[in-house]
Backbone:
């Protein structure tokens, strides 16, 4: 027995010694060699970090990068370090859990320094001057510098094209510009050709003429029409430009549901070049339409139908770019910019109703908001009457108080309230509809509304909890008739939820009732069936919880295609709410993994249903179960949802209008 005990004791001691020896294994010679090479200068340090990241030697990577956080290298040295680290290895380092936050911050800092170095204007200008050098080595170095400069090099080349008088230099600039990014280079030149100074416009158009491609023909056509007064030759050219505007407007209206940001050019303050900027994809589409309108305005196209289209495009872009556009300064600038010395009253009398009618007919909600806000200031009784009266029928302005979009109909009611300040006793067809809208605006709540068609108390309670979690104010109805009356009030309804079998109609009939009402055209509809019955829910939910936690742990170390760790399961409720209720003109992919190949390309195909969404699903148990339909409804919103300040403004306007109309 003692022998056996001693034998086992020796084995135990040897096992412990082996473990200790294993913990003190000598370092990897390759890793040590790379760490030694890192002392050979900034480029050697960058190469070592890149190689160590490739073999996932994170402790060594951390050891080399962490000192840079406390003792930052000079900008030129930092740029040299970053130049040796590939993009994929940078992402791997940023995603590695074993690399400290200080080391990751140092990595970001050296890449920022490299970006600043590559974009340095003096460096780019020096390279541009070398493009016409007689020495091949100088030209090759200039090419490398400009290609690494990306969009900033393109901007510098565009600036040189429109400033230089040397034809050889301009040709060389244009050749390199097209090699760096042909599409962006042409877009920048077209922007200067439209909005630049006279000198810059002329040289930009000369450069575009060198291309001889179809995509710039409309710009060259604009130049030709500016110099021509021959009505016979002008008319066919104007028709082409008007069609281009119509196509751009159709694309803009269709893009109102797109997600994401894109890089675009903006004209610089001196109007002799461009600068890169970020803008929402749908706003860029409206800007393209405004550009097409500006070309027609520049060549003096004063045909009434064309003028309506031009004004629609210009107003739409201003509201799309700035949802708060429309104060007194904005209105004065817009009228002076397009009509010169004409008075605001003359402009509104001639164009307000045609532009509003065109905006509503084409479902261009930003343009409708723009023209409604344009109707303000000192309005005479005669103008007010002409805008509100159309014989025995309601004018388009009065009809707009029933517009499908809540913002548009509230703006229409607010515009009518302003017009009636000139004569509170003014009467017109449809006045009762306007007064009903004022009554609704005066009681406008702090949240968007979700109407729920249900009569079972326990399910109503569940829906109230779910809608409160989704950020909505739940309103309960017990029949399709009650739903129709509730919807006709025109509140800020964001969602309609109904059980499969309402007591006074079928679900199909309910959908038909909602879609026939203008204010219900765009509201998402959810038809729910009973929630699935789960046997032994406690056991199943416990198993699901365990699987979910294990999946989260696994996903935490896996970056997606953008280098973001974690997936949709890591989405917390705060981010979810901001995505659902926030602005749609922002790219949320940094917070939630989205497939950018799908976002912005999927649209509701049935034109008869307009922008409305119809979904049938089992009754969800939480707000998370509504996530997809709520996200889809936000993607279909034509304008940003009403802010608290918007709601307060509409309430005050309605209260003042009601008080003025009831005074003896």
Residues:
């Amino acid at each position: 027995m003692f022998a056996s005990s001693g034998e086992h004791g020796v084995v135990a001691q040897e096992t412990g010694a082996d473990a200790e020896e294993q913990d003190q294994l000598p370092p990897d010679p390759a890793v040590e060699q790379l760490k030694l090479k890192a002392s050979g200068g900034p480029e050697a340090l960058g190469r070592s970090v890149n190689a160590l990241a490739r073999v996932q030697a994170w402790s060594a990577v951390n050891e080399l990068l962490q000192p840079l956080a406390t003792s930052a290298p000079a900008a030129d040295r930092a740029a040299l370090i970053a130049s040796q680290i590939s993009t994929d290895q940078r992402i791997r380092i940023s995603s590695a859990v074993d690399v400290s936050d200080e080391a990751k911050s140092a990595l970001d800092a050296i890449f920022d320094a490299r970006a600043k170095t590559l974009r340095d204007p003096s460096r780019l200008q020096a390279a541009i001057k070398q493009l016409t050098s007689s020495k091949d080595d100088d030209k090759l170095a200039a090419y490398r510098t400009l290609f690494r400069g990306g969009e900033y090099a393109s901007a510098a080349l565009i600036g040189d094209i429109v400033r230089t008088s040397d034809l050889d230099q301009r040709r060389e600039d244009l050749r390199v510009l097209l090699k760096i990014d042909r599409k962006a280079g042409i877009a920048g030149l077209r922007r200067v050709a439209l909005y630049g100074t006279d000198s810059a416009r002329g040289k930009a158009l000369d450069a575009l003429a060198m291309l001889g491609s179809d995509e710039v023909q409309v710009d060259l056509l604009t130049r030709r029409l500016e110099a021509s007064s021959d009505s016979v030759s002008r008319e066919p050219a104007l028709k082409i430009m008007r069609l281009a505007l119509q196509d751009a407007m159709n694309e803009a209206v269709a893009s109102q549901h797109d997600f994401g940001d894109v890089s675009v050019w903006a004209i610089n303050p001196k109007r002799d070049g461009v600068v890169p900027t970020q803008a929402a994809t749908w706003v860029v589409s409206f800007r393209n339409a405004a550009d097409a309108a500006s070309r027609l305005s520049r060549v003096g196209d004063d045909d009434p139908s064309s003028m309506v289209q031009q004004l629609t495009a210009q107003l739409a872009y201003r509201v799309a770019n700035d949802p708060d556009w429309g104060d007194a300064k904005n209105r004065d600038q817009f009228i002076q910019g397009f009509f010169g010395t004409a008075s605001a009253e003359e402009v509104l009398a001639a164009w307000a109703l045609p532009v509003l009618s065109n905006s509503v007919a084409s479902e261009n909600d930003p343009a409708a908001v723009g023209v409604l806000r344009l109707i303000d200031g000192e309005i005479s009784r005669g103008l007010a009457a002409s805008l509100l009266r159309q014989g025995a029928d309601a004018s388009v302005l009065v009809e707009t108080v029933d517009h499908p979009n809540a913002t548009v109909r509230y703006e229409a009611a607010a515009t009518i309230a302003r017009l009636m300040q000139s004569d509170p006793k003014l009467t017109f067809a449809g006045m009762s509809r306007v007064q009903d809208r004022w009554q609704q605006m005066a009681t406008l709540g702090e949240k968007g509304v979700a109407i729920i068609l249900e009569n079972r108390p326990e399910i109503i309670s569940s829906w109230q909890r779910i809608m409160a979690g989704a950020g909505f104010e739940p309103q309960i109805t017990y029949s399709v008739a009650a739903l129709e009356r509730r919807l006709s009030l025109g509140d800020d309804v964001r969602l309609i939820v109904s059980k499969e079998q309402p007591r006074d109609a079928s679900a199909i009939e309910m959908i038909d009732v909602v879609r026939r009402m203008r204010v219900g055209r765009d509201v998402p509809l959810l038809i729910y069936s009973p929630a699935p019955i789960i046997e032994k829910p406690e056991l199943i939910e416990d198993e699901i919880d365990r699987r979910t936690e294990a999946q989260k742990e696994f996903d935490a170390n896996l970056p997606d295609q953008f280098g973001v760790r974690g997936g949709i399961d890591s989405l917390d409720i705060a981010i979810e709410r901001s995505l659902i209720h926030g602005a749609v003109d922002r790219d949320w992919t940094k917070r939630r993994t989205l497939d950018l190949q799908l976002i912005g390309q999927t649209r509701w195909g049935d034109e008869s249903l307009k922008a409305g969404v119809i979904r049938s699903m089992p009754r969800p148990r939480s707000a998370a179960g509504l996530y997809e339909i709520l996200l889809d409804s936000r993607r279909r919103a034509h304008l940003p949802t009403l802010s608290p300040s918007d709601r307060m403004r509409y309430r005050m306007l309605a209260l003042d209008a009601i008080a003025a109309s009831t005074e003896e």
About this structure: The chain has a mean pLDDT of 81. The beta strands are 261-267, 274-280, 389-390, 393-394, 449-453, 473-477, 493-499, 525-529, 614-618.
